[in-house]
Amino acid sequence: MDQLWVTIVLLGALAVMLAAGIWIAIALLALGFIGMVFFTDSPAGLLMATTVWGSSTSWALTALPLFIWMGEILFRSRISEDMFNGLAPWMDALPGRLVHCNIIGCGIFAAISGSSTATCATIGKITIPELRKRNYDEAMYIGSLAGAGTLGLMIPPSIILIVYGVAADVSIARLFVAGVLPGILLVVLFSGYIAIWALLNPGRTPPRSVRMTLWQKLWEGRFLIPTVLLIAAVIGSIYAGIASPTESAALGVLGALILSASTGGLNWKTFSESVMGAMRTSCMIAFILTGAAFLTVGMGFTGVPRAIAETITRMGLTPGELIGVLTLLFLVLGCFLDGISMVVLTAAVILPSVRAAGIDLLWFGIFIVLVVEAAQVTPPVGFNLYVLQALTRRDMFYVARVSLPFFCLMVAAVAIIWAFPEIVSYLPSKMFQVK
Amino acid sequence: MRAVLDWLYRASGVLAGVFLVGIALMTLAQVGGRALGLATRSFDDFAGFAMAASFFLGLAWTLRCGEHIRVNLLVHGLKGRVRRAVEIVCLAASLFVCGYFAWYSIDMTWTSYSIGDVSQGLVPVQLWIPQSGMALGLLMLAIALADDLVVALGGSLTSYELAEAAKADAIPSFER
After folding, report:
1. Are the beta carbons of A305 and A350 closer than 8 angstroms?
2. What is the pLDDT of residue B41?
3. Half-sphere exposure (CA, 13 Å, Cβ side) for B110?
4. Can you tell me the distance from the alpha carbon of B155 to that of B81, in angstroms, rounded to the nearest whole number?
5. What's the longest Cα–Cα distance across chain B?
6. Per-residue pLDDT reduced to its tens digit, B20-42
7. What residues are paired with A298 via a beta bridge?
């Protein structure tokens, strides 16, 4: 049968299944099944069981449940409550003042949780009442939360980078290290925008409200600082080649348990809740990965990804044009799909095209995460917009409008890493290999 | 019947949690062992097996907690009988796919058992032992889907719809 028709039938089937509300993981399994049973003579059931078994025992993937568990433990400790008080004294001197608490707070919490909606909700719940009480500009603090909330996807240990690494067969350690500079780039862009805005609109930032000595500042940050050190140790050990991502995740879990115990937040209830929460989240992600693993095999049999790659090559798209088209595609897809599903679908269908265009798969991983981040704040269905709408009781249109500058900054970040790919590749090229 | 099923879902969820803790313990043991100069490489395989067990055994419980992702934008726009009908079709299709998947996983596990297949790691393990976690977990998922299909056919809200609604109510808000 004509490749084009196979592609159209499969894409149509996927769209119908997703729109009807079938679970994404099951829809991916079903799509692989449809592709195999209707368009090839391969034994679908046998391949389904063996592919999935092979993909779900891979050692690289064991980092995923462990990092999620580490986040769940820290999430239940006092860290989020102390975030604002710990950060405020340090931020008050900057132009834009306490709005920077949103950016830095989200940056730190992002490293812990790896989920952008959780980051946005947890930090917003604390900072919005505080900033509102002090008469900060509402458009500024809501917009900055929407933007900075997405840092969770980029700043390592990032769950979505593990998913990409497993799906695209790229080293997770290298992806983590590659995500550091682009993550910092985003923080600088966000904070820089806030500072410039504050300097241009001097009347709209309230005066300084916190004055403390260095010792007081350190005392306020007594729960925050150890957490930051723990995250730095986790990333540092991967960078230095001392530990694989899985090993550093296990040490991170141990560190988080010790931290939580020493601040009095650890008891049987919080421990078992953290285990069950981590189990459910990693189960959900693993199920999607499972579906994607089978879909990749199924798609391989139908030859659709190869046909797409050949079509793109025939059209003579330059890598730059391909990236431009993909950016638009992902921003649209992001209105309907969550980031992880987008990443695994890309890996199953579009990766051969990307490889054929000569684009570095490490760079592409960071690119896709950046675009997925931007998609979280694209109206009408950015997930972060929903959270902020619920938090602030403002309408969706308002939240989307104040988030727009930050959305533009993220698109600018995509352009920057395209122009300067060294931002992605520099640190991985300098890192030490494990053993 | 209801109580037995609920107990089964929860029990396999708790077992999944135990395996999750197992991954951490084995990885830590490996790091510690290496620091002491002991050969603990085969822990890689065991951690991988524990992870597979954790993933699959947790599937049913995760479904009932409404945590498997789906696009419910359009479904939430529907009301009444149409909504029920769409939900029933989805559940039936999902049950078919997962039942098929569970059937072949059981088949694979049975084959591993009957030909005595072993893993390729340093310590050979009878493959049917870790594989049975996958087979059992998928079977539980199929049972959970059938359970919810019966509920939906009876015209009531399914377990995951109730859980999703409860979560929507719990979205952090300081102005309520």
Report:
1. yes
2. 66
3. 7
4. 9
5. 66
6. 999 999 999 888 887 787 766 67
7. none
User: Cα dihedral sign for A127, A129, A132, A134?
Assistant: negative
Say whether A279 and B47 touch across the interface (CB within 8 A): no
Q: Judge whether A310 and A350 are in contact, CB under 8 Å.
A: no
The first and second tokens of residue A96, run together, are 């834009």
Instruction: List phi, psi (to 5°) of A274.
Output: -65, -40
Determine phi and psi for A23, rounding to 5 degrees: -55, 140
Chain B residues 2-31 within an 8 A CB cutoff of chain A: 13-14, 16-17, 20-21, 23-24, 27-28, 30-31
pTM: 0.87
Query: Residue B70, SS3?
Result: strand
Interface contact B117, partner A, CB < 8 A: no
Q: What is the distance between the alpha carbons of residues A35 and A40, in angstroms, rounded to a whole number?
A: 7
Of B63, B72, B97, the CB nearest to A29: B97
On the 0-12 / 13-18 / 19+ scale of CB atoms within 10 A, A271 is middle
Residues of chain A with pLDDT under 70: 1, 80, 114, 210, 379-381, 432-435
Beta bridge partners of B70: A23
Q: Which residues contact A47 (CB under 8 A, 6 or more apart)?
A: A36, A294, A297, A298
Supply the Cα-derived Rg of chain B in whole angstroms.
20
Interface of B with A in 41-80 (CB under 8 A): 44-45, 47-49, 51-52, 54-56, 58-59, 61-63, 65, 67-75
Residues 6 or more apart from A142 whose CB is under 8 A from it? A128, A388, A392, A394, A398, A399, A402, A403
DSSP symbols for B99-165: HHHHHHHHHHHHHHHHHT-B-SSSS--BTHHHHHHHHHHHHHHHHHHHHHHHHHHTTSPPHHHHHHH
CB pairs under 8 A between A and B: 189
Q: From residue A48, how far is each of A33, A39, A54, A293, A424 by CA, in Å?
A: 8, 16, 10, 9, 36
A423, A185 in Cβ contact below 8 A?
yes
Please give the Cα distance from A33 to A22 (Å, whole number). 15
Per the CB < 8 A criterion, the answer to whether A67 and A168 are in contact is no
Give the residue on B whose Cα is nearest the Cα of A48: B101
The dihedral through the CA atoms of A388, A392, A394, A399 has a sign that is negative
- A402, A143 in Cβ contact below 8 A? yes
The residue of chain B with its CA nearest to that of A29 is B97
This complex has an ipTM of 0.92
Interface test with A, best of B25, B27, B54 (most A CBs within 10 A): B27
> What's phi and psi for B70, nearest 5 deg?
-150, 160
Nearest of A405, A403, A408, A411 to residue A143 by alpha carbon? A403
Q: Is A169 left (phi over 0), alpha (psi -120 to 50) or beta?
A: left
> Which pLDDT score, from 0 to 100, does residue B53 have?
93
At A341-395, the pLDDT tens digits run 888 888 888 888 888 888 899 999 999 989 888 887 876 667 778 778 777 778 7
Alpha-carbon gap, residue A72 to A278, rounded angstroms: 6
**Cβ B55 vs Cβ B130: under 8 Å:** no
Percent composition of chain B: helix, strand, coil (DSSP 3-state, to 5)? 75, 0, 25
